[in-house]
UniProtKB/TrEMBL annotation:
Ranges where the VOC domain occurs: 3-131
Name of a matching Pfam family: Glyoxalase_4
Top-rank taxon: Bacteria
Example GO molecular function: methylmalonyl-CoA epimerase activity
EC number, as in UniProt: 5.1.99.1
Coiled coil: none
Protein name stated in the entry: Methylmalonyl-CoA epimerase
């Protein structure tokens, strides 16, 4: 793990929460992005080497919609930056951590991502993020997974 890549916060109203965090952080949103495979719309705010990722649900069956229904607004996950997501997934699986996806999947902000079950990390949903180095427009759209 090379840094806290972002902290994900589940919000009911992305636009309203965006105004709250723009004022709080005194910085503008640098990117909004929908991730259809997750049923989320994200808004990113740079804070030093880390980011705040606001997450709104775009579908009722989204993990964010379920979280909001069950727990209300609040911190949803912590994402760690990794150099080699496949190696990290293999290492953590061998150590007994429960991976929620067997292969890396395309996340927001030009990343490959994977999630660990909260029960593996003291009730905290952990996300692993690896920067995608290739040119974004050469990557398949949607919920592609990487076999390479
Ligand atoms: C990828 C795009 C973007 C990015 O950064 O690039 C994102 O970050 S998208 C973020 C949204 N996507 C995900 O969260 C994918 C991974 N999440 C899941 O697979 C599920 O949400 C899961 C398995 C964490 C929970 O599933 P579900 O809600 O259907 O199950 P339960 O309600 O039964 O929950 C099981 C157990 O976990 C607790 N829980 C649920 N969500 C969280 C959470 N965010 N943090 C901590 N704990 C969580 C829940 O309370 C249950 O605990 P229990 O003690 O059994 O009540
Ligand atoms: Co995230």
């Amino acid at each position: 793990m090379n840094k806290i890549e972002h902290i994900g916060i589940a919000v009911k109203d992305l636009e309203a929460a965006g105004k709250t965090y723009e004022t709080l952080l005194n910085t503008e949103c640098y990117k909004t992005e929908k991730v259809e495979s997750e049923g989320v719309e994200t808004a990113f705010y740079q804070v030093g080497e880390s980011k705040i990722e606001l997450l709104g649900a775009t579908r009722d069956d989204s993990p964010i919609a379920k979280f909001l229904e069950k727990k209300g607004e609040g911190i949803h996950h912590i994402a760690f930056g990794v150099e080699d997501i496949k190696a990290e997934m293999k290492r953590l699986k061998a150590e007994g951590y429960v991976l929620l996806n067997e292969k890396p999947k395309k996340g927001a902000d030009n990343k490959l991502v994977a999630f660990l079950h909260p029960k593996s990390s003291n009730g905290v949903l952990v996300e692993l993020c690896q920067e995608i180095k290739e040119e974004p427009d050469t990557l398949p759209e949607g919920d592609a997974v990487w076999d390479s």
